[in-house]
Write a structure and sequence with these properties.
By secondary structure, the protein is an alpha/beta fold. It has helices at residues 4-14, 29-40, 54-66, 77-82, 84-92, 117-120, 135-149, 179-185, 211-243, 269-281, 299-306, 327-335, 360-376, 387-409; strands at residues 19-22, 47-50, 72-75, 98-103, 128-131, 158-163, 250-253, 260-264, 286-291, 293-295, 311-316, 345-350, 381-383. It folds into 2 domains: 4-243, Thiamin diphosphate (ThDP)-binding fold, Pyr/PP domains (Rossmann fold); 250-388, Rossmann fold (3-Layer(aba) Sandwich), CATH 3.40.50.
Length: 410
């Protein structure tokens, strides 16, 4: 029985990183605590480096990776934001670092609850993103991420994401594979181009004054990310062959005869699957699609999964103020080129921000609202609220007005 954090720590240790720069932040601290214990007890042969900030953590990870050392680290929320500048440098210099992110809502106001704004806010930084539903998947994804990132046709860093508190501190049965099996699956990292050698000098991250050179490097970066779509599929198949656990870039659940689909990511998928079972019990042809690979975006898999559906309900546990959910336009864009007769109505729902529970009844509402939208021929985009939320907001507003009135009287 392992927490999501412990599962990630085991996945990292089994991958035999040579350098682990780290800085604690809730709710990922348990990951680096576990790894530091492995090192202290002699179970893991690695250089563990406690840094002064997350910016320094990723700076150290980049430097370590550029010497040819397999590198791991972890962060969360504001820590990931502090790394933002270095994320682009890590991917632009083609460093296949693996980093776990334990999602937590962003300040302000400060919260310890989970939503996905931290990880999705980094979607353009050029990293591969794998989003996990279970503790087992978290462990397995760290191992797979190294094999994906270190592929010579990719050489890009990867983030493995889990939901803070919802998964990070939830204990689930986890099969921890043997070191021998992991070694057979994931060979020792031996880079062809990254390793520094004083006798064979190379340059990394050099200045490109003219736009032509810069455009060339950015295009190479993009092509590597697109290569990763195929490599992810290949590695997932190899992992299934080696360990007997099957993963897909877009997971399908009860989709064989579905007319409508919920679309989710991360741990809330488990609740959504219960909602699908409940809808099926009512005789409704509803399935579920889970986005496991968010970058590079698995456009073709999404098109194939959605072709012929009447409606898709996209759950965003995030918000881009002034625009709406982040996932919704990605899905609509992917499906835009489908012929109108085979293109489903796509509806967006924002829920679960800051760790708010998403209930079965709320999923029922998303399903019914999407069915109505499909009947009307017009998609919708809504923020899900409950009477409890609305009453709380009205009470806070009333209290604020009362305070202002009292001050004016004083």
């Amino acid at each position: 029985m392992l927490t999501g954090n412990s599962a990630i720590a085991y996945g990292a240790a089994l991958s035999r990183p040579k350098v682990i720069p780290a800085y604690p932040i809730t709710p990922q601290t348990e990951i680096i605590e576990s790894l530091s214990e492995f090192v202290a007890e002699g179970l893991l042969d690695t250089r563990f480096m406690l840094m002064e900030s997350e910016h320094s953590v990723l700076s150290a990870a980049i430097t370590a990776e550029q010497t040819g050392a397999r590198t791991f680290t972890a962060t969360s929320s504001q820590g990931l934001l502090l790394m933002h500048e270095m994320l682009y440098i890590a991917s632009g210099t083609r460093c296949p670092i693996v980093m776990a992110n334990v999602s937590r809502g962003l300040s302000a106001p400060i919260t310890l609850g989970a939503d996905e704004n931290d990880i999705l806010g980094q979607r353009d930084a050029g990293w591969i993103q794998l989003h996990c539903e279970t503790c087992q998947e978290a462990l397995d994804s760290v191992i797979m991420a190294y094999k994906i990132s270190e592929n010579k046709n990719v050489l890009l860093p990867s983030m493995v994401n889990i939901d803070g508190f919802i998964l990070s501190f939830t204990r689930e049965p986890v099969d921890v594979p043997s070191q021998r099996k992991v070694d057979d699956f994931l060979p020792e990292y031996s880079p062809e181009t990254m390793k520094y050698d004083a006798n064979v000098p190379i340059s990394q991250g050099v200045a490109t004054i003219d736009g032509i050179s810069y455009s060339y490097f950015r295009m190479q970066h993009h092509l590597a990310a697109m290569n990763a779509v195929r490599i992810v599929e290949k590695v997932q198949k190899e992992f299934n062959d080696a360990f007997g656990r099957n993963y897909a870039s877009v997971e399908q659940f009860m989709m064989e005869d579905a007319d409508y689909a919920l679309m989710t990511s991360n741990a809330i998928t488990t609740v959504a699957k219960s909602a699908v079972r409940r809808a099926r019990a009512r005789g409704e042809k509803v399935g579920l699609l889970r986005i496991r690979l968010f970058r590079p975006f698995p456009t073709e898999d999404i098109i194939n999964a959605c072709k012929g559906l009447k409606g898709v309900a996209v759950l965003d546990r995030n918000i881009s103020p002034g625009a709406g959910g982040i996932m919704l336009p990605e899905i609509r864009s992917a499906l835009y080129d489908l012929k109108e007769k085979s293109r489903p109505i796509v509806c967006g729902f924002i829920d679960g921000l800051g760790g708010k529970d998403v209930t079965l009844d709320e999923f029922d509402y998303m399903i019914s609202r999407t069915k109505k939208a499909a009947s009307d021929g017009v998609g919708v985009s809504e923020i899900i609220s409950t009477k409890k939320q609305d009453d709380r907001a009205r009470m806070m507003l009333s209290e604020a007005r009362g305070i202002r009135k009292t001050k004016e009287e004083d």
